[in-house]
Amino acid sequence: MTNTDDRALAALIDHTLLKPEATAADVTALLREAEELGTYSVCISPSMLPVETTVKVATVCGFPSGQHSPETKAFEARESVDKGADEVDMVLNVGLARAGEYDAVEHEIRAVRDVAKAPAVLKVIIESAALTDEQIVAVCQAAERAGADFVKTSTGFHPAGGASEHAVALMRKTVGDRLGVKASGGIRTREAAEAMVAAGASRLGLSSSRAILEGGAGSGY
User: Fold this and answer.
1) Which residues form the active site (predicted)?
2) CATH of domain 4-213
3) I need a labelling partner for 104 at 20 to 30 A (CA). Which of 55, 137, 148, 157 fits?
């Protein structure tokens, strides 16, 4: 890949494989593709750790529902970091957010942050499509108070939908330049990926990275 724009976009991508039917061979293929494309990282299920690659390794915890205790999420995050994960994308308890229990949201994020310490990067998946604007702002503020490094739109598995330009822009407005914003879920074309970056995304979660970088359409996460 020689196009400068391609390289710049690839450097924002977490090349993602979180399908429950994924095999070790699928993950190996993902790693090699990420290295070839020059993506920032791969994002894989915690059961696939550890892996060997020249790119960063991200994983998930509390995935995909977020309906796990803070202690369970913390255990999962600690184990993943011990197995070599550079980054952890945790799913917050969306029910707590919808109920306005933002202190509880902050508590569970802090529980993960306490075990996934810097230099590990912590991203908080807020499922923005399932929240009101007011709730999006409040959970982003809770994530910042708890010491998260990024807020992230979506798991890509919620029936309410994935990333939207509106949500990304609101998240960026809320956290300013203090946290990163990751757009993920339903980004299937290069046009959509570039629109998310224009809205304020500093990282992209994509499963069809090659197709998107080549200007085509992908499918999946």
Assistant:
1) 89 (proton donor/acceptor), 152 (schiff-base intermediate with acetaldehyde), 182 (proton donor/acceptor)
2) 3.20.20.70
3) 157
Rounded to whole angstroms, how far apart are CA atoms 221 and 187? 7
182 a catalytic residue: yes
CA pair distance 59, 42, nearest whole angstrom: 8
> Full-prediction pTM beyond 0.90?
yes
Structure confidence by residue, pLDDT tens digits, 64-110: 999 999 999 999 999 999 999 999 999 999 999 999 999 999 999 99
Strands (E), 38-172: 41-44, 56-61, 87-91, 121-125, 150-152
Active-site pick, 14, 73, 89, 149: 89
The tokens 């699928």 sit on which residue?
A: 26
User: What are 8-18's pLDDT values in tens digits?
Assistant: 999 999 999 99
On the question of pLDDT at 221 being above 60, the answer is no
Closest of 12, 4, 1 to residue 39, by C-alpha: 12
Q: Does the pLDDT at position 138 exceed 80? A: yes
CB 14 within 8 A of CB 204: yes
The active-site residue, picked from 14, 123, 149, 152, is 152
Give yes or no: 152 in active site. Answer: yes
Which residue is listed with tokens 């999006």? Answer: 136
Is residue 123 flagged as an active site residue? Answer: no
